[in-house]
Amino acid sequence: MADFDYDLFVIGAGSGGVRAARIAATHGARVAIAEEYRYGGTCVIRGCVPKKLLVYASQYSEAFEDARGFGWSIGETSFDWKALIAAKDKEIARLEGIYRRNLENSDVELYDTRAVIAGPNSVYLKAQDRTVTAKTILIATGGRPNLDPRIEGIEHVISSDEVFHLEELPQRVAISGGGYIAVEFACIFAGLGVETTLVYRGEQILRGFDDDLRDAVRTEIEKKGIRVLCGEVFTRIEKLEEGGLKGHLASGETMSVDQIMFAIGRIPNTEGLGLESAGVEVGTKGEIRVDDTSRTNVPSIYAVGDVTDRVNLTPVAIREGHAFADSVFGKNPRTVDHSLIPTAVFSQPEIGTVGLTETEALAAYPNVDVYSSTFRPMRNTISGRDERMLMKILVDADTDRVLGVHVLGPDAGELSQVLGIALKMGATKADFDATMAVHPTAAEELVTMRSPSKQHRRAAAE
Fold first, then answer.
1. Has 248 been annotated as catalytic?
2. Tens digits of residue pLDDT in 161-206
3. Can you give the pLDDT at residue 461?
4. Quick check: 55 and 192 in contact, CB under 8 A?
5. From residue 290, how far is each of 297, 310, 390, 427 by CA, in Å?
6. Which of 322, 338, 439, 456 is the catalytic position?
7. Which of 373, 433, 375 lies closest to 402, judged by CA?
């Protein structure tokens, strides 16, 4: 048997890589991990966690307004962007420290350096200018922002990496994109008083989500003053001598803003990783191709998380990393089920969803019942806020099984986690109906909708 420096070497200390390293170590493996930036990965350092902190900050402007309707007298308020960023940085530093300590406490050896594949069982550590060997290598380098290099002046824009480190809060911002990140940051900036425009090439924002949700969230964010331009793209970015940027759109329209943020998606972070030296196969976007066990075409090399471009969500990367470690080092082979994954968009109002969209349900099932309700949540009644919730349940009419649930409104993300459990267990509409309502809550609507708002019936082929 070959003598290796480590049983497992992990490249990338994000959520998936850290989980895999820790679990493998608890199974008795000799483990090392390399990270060239900061421990915690995209989610902790420049993704989900700092974004959610900014979401909270941006919600206070409406909270102050709504408080008056409940009898509170609100005086003059002001916002300090630098104070927020400093508080965010302090929290991220605390979390990174926890990630490091957890790895060290698990006896994982840490390398603060860029690491690249040097062969099927070898890894080159750039900062130390040396190569180490490992019986198994796990790639967990995640993704990076996609910036279209064909656009003249693209070097002047910011991405979801730089947005967390802006020295000043812009007065006017344009965001290119229509997915999670674009919509969430449009709402963050608008909530902080920034004049915000969302520019998206598609017909409607949030492609891949249920169409009713997409329509409803656009209506609500436009009420908040966010300008949404669909069917439009930037063709050129011009840096102005007096400061700021001028964005040129395909339609011929121009806009002068302080910052332009591109959030047109993320791509697998595999560039310069040395995959070709070991013969690791990648797809057209650079994603590492793996099987159900997260193994590449090279038997000693595995990959988990966004770098595989399967389901690009932090909890999925964690689950994949854990399953890998259990399978390879814990003598407990298992794979990850990528179906029925609950997810949330921290727009304002918030989205929580699990299961099939109406379009997907109609494509997969001949008979589908749709239950939906739109209403103003109780907190908006005496505050006077004109913001509505949407709840939608999709049911297989032949078996009564719930195929999907979609919620737009306060705490929708929290609801989606619990709904995910129900759908994973195969809940039926009858199970929903048999569940006692909690009153007064918005969530009680999920168990009190009795009559379908639509019934789709596919005619049998003659």
1. no
2. 999 999 999 999 999 999 999 999 999 999 999 999 999 999 999 9
3. 53
4. no
5. 7, 9, 38, 32
6. 439
7. 433
